[in-house]
Design brief:
The protein is an alpha/beta fold. The strands form 2 sheets. The chain has a 10-stranded mixed β-sheet, sandwiched between helices. A two-stranded antiparallel sheet has the order 1-2. Helix 3 runs parallel beside helix 6 and helix 8 crosses helix 11.
């Protein structure tokens, strides 16, 4: 810590007691090593958060456009500004040890691909919180300060996590310029970050570049025993690759550590309490944080909710996804059938399925454009089970293919080499967090039985999802986490009001998860339901009714009552083949939990 203290001219012995104190010794648990380790990790996390808060206290509070807030005197050692724009400098080096150092927001490096006015900083956190002064990793943090537009008073930082696990939220500050976010961005600094393992935040990998799939890949509609054995061997090899690349650090990619990182980020931002927006897996992360730190929660939005029941995390949650994806796949086919006059794929959902199967059989024989086989086709059309705004281009690409033009399908479904490494990184983090977080069945017979039965009624994504998660069966980390019992804890402070938003027909995070989270969070948790809709991620521009409730809550803290509902957002309009549908390549990322 000497480097950090000298940099800011700290001479106060009292401050050094806060920053330099060793971790609080873990209380003996009566011989339970897992409990002892958890206590040590929590003590280390508290120490790092205190250090971060003390470092943040030495920096100026920022107002609109990042300028010092009125009446706030810049602290010694802060960098100069030119008007409201920071002087351009290279990305700072975070403190070499100890974690929780100061955040210095500067223009983002080119590798982040983030334009002005977004600024970037690095947050140092321990790889292992039981060793707070041991090896460190740097998390990339991004921010656009509150604009103050319309005279809005600044309410602090709103931190965003987009889910995954394995997704990066560094783009979040860019939403400040969108209408649905403008009033929120006037009052809040919009803060995104790349969680541990993601992007440049101590990147995790499980494969060498030469091992990444190149395509085309051919995946059978119904896996044979031989194909299942092949995938089981591949899953074991993938898990071994994770251990080979990460070593003992592999065990440190968990939701509990993500929650600890989130608390250090809160402290480093100078926030006494956290305002947080979590989507998909981000809802589970937020729920775990709120359970462990109810006194540090200011406002929380949970959008598209993972079922946090510890009995379901994560094996049963993933099994439940299969039925959700099947419903949304049926919704896409029904919508396409209603627009048979545009696409010519059939006037019933069953007929549209038959058209899809014709395309599938054709690319199994001869990959579209030489690069799109059944694996790429499945990945591209899974996106239709996530978001209805892609339905027009998906339907148009099938239609064009059956009329003799494979180009739209090729552009839509081909693997994008520029995204291959990012997708591999996302998959590695996704796998590590889910496998570390909870026990999974270790015997293949359980997986085979459960998924064979499930595939009879939900064939669209069952086996693809099973094979994605199969490395968890032979995961090379001895001690798995015990899932957190999300919700009010005996003797703990009651949570302030929180807001849950969910779509009734969401496939990736079925609606039952929202009901379960509300039950666990208690009377202060309000639920806003988008009826008869299923796009994953409800707030932020898709449904004006939902957006009004989210905006009102974040700006005032007011919730709409126990349960309210909104009409569904409009279905997408069909496009003709001449409208250029399916012309833009898409990144194929793993399913978001």
């Amino acid at each position: 810590m000497r480097t950090t203290l000298a940099r800011y001219g700290v001479a106060s012995a009292a401050l050094c007691l806060t920053l330099c104190a060793p971790a609080v010794p873990a209380r003996a648990s009566g011989g339970d090593p897992a409990a002892d380790r958890l206590a040590a990790e929590d003590a280390g996390a508290e120490l790092v958060a205190r250090r971060a808060a003390a470092a943040a206290a030495l920096r100026p509070v920022t107002g609109a456009a990042g300028a010092p807030a009125p009446g706030v005197r810049p602290a010694a050692g802060t960098r100069p500004t030119q008007g409201s724009r920071p002087v351009t400098r290279p990305m700072p080096r975070p403190p070499a040890a100890g974690g929780g150092g100061p955040l210095e927001f500067l223009p983002c490096p080119a590798v982040e691909e983030l334009p002005d006015p977004v600024r970037c900083a690095l947050l140092r956190v321990p790889l292992d919180y039981a060793r707070p002064d041991g090896p460190q990793i740097s998390l990339t943090v991004t921010r656009v300060p509150a604009s103050g537009r319309g005279g809005a008073a600044r309410q602090g930082a709103l931190v965003f996590n987009p889910g995954g696990p394995g997704a990066s939220g560094t783009y979040f500050p860019l939403l400040a310029g969108r209408p649905a976010w403008s009033r929120i961005a006037a009052a809040y600094d919009l803060v995104g970050y790349a969680p541990r393992g993601v992007g440049r935040s101590g990147p995790l990998t499980c494969q060498d570049p030469a091992e990444l799939p190149q395509g085309p890949t051919q995946v059978p509609a119904e896996p044979s025993p031989a194909y299942k054995r092949e995938r089981l061997a591949a899953a074991r090899a993938y898990a071994e690759g994770c251990a080979r690349h990460a070593g003992t650090a592999l065990a440190q990619y968990t939701t509990l550590n993500n929650a600890r990182d989130l608390d250090v980020l809160r402290a480093a931002l100078g926030e006494r309490r956290l305002s947080f927006f979590g989507a998909s897996y981000g809802t589970y992360l937020g729920a775990v944080y709120a359970t462990r730190h109810p006194d540090r929660v200011r406002r929380m939005v949970f959008d598209s909710v993972v079922d946090p029941d510890p009995r379901r995390v994560w094996y049963l949650d993933n099994l439940r996804q299969a039925g959700g994806f099947e419903r949304r796949w049926a919704d896409f086919r029904a919508w396409t059938a209603r627009h048979h006059d545009v696409y010519g794929l059939g006037s019933t959902a069953r007929a549209v399925q038959e058209s899809y199967e014709k395309v599938r059989a054709a690319v199994a024989r001869t990959p579209a454009g030489g690069v799109v086989g059944t694996g790429e086709l499945q990945a591209a059309y899974l996106r239709a089970a996530y978001y209805d705004d892609v339905w027009p281009e998906r339907a148009a690409a099938l239609s064009a293919y059956l009329r003799g033009n494979p180009a739209p399908l090729t552009r839509l479904a081909a693997r994008d080499p520029a995204w291959a490494q990012r997708a591999a990184n996302a998959t590695a983090v996704y796998t590590a967090v889910l496998c570390n977080d909870a026990p999974w069945p270790a015997d293949w017979e359980t997986w085979d039985r459960d998924n064979t039965e499930l595939a009879r009624r939900a064939p669209f994504e069952t086996w693809a999802n099973a094979f994605l998660n199969l490395p968890c069966a032979g995961w090379p980390v001895r001690e798995r986490q015990r899932p957190v019992a999300v919700g009010a804890q005996p003797g703990a402070r009651r949570l302030p009001g929180t807001l849950i938003v969910a779509a009734e027909r969401d496939g990736a995070t079925p609606y039952a998860g929202a009901l379960e989270l509300q039950r666990r969070l208690g009377a202060g948790a309000a639920l806003v339901t988008e009826r008869a809709a299923g796009s994953h991620g409800v707030a932020g521009g898709r449904n004006a009714c939902v957006d009004r409730q989210v905006e009102r809550y974040l700006l005032t803290g007011a919730t709409p009552g126990w349960r309210v509902s909104c009409a569904p957002h409009p279905e997408p309009a069909p496009v003709t083949l001449d409208d250029g549908a399916a012309s833009a390549p898409r990144a194929l990322l793993p399913p978001l939990v």
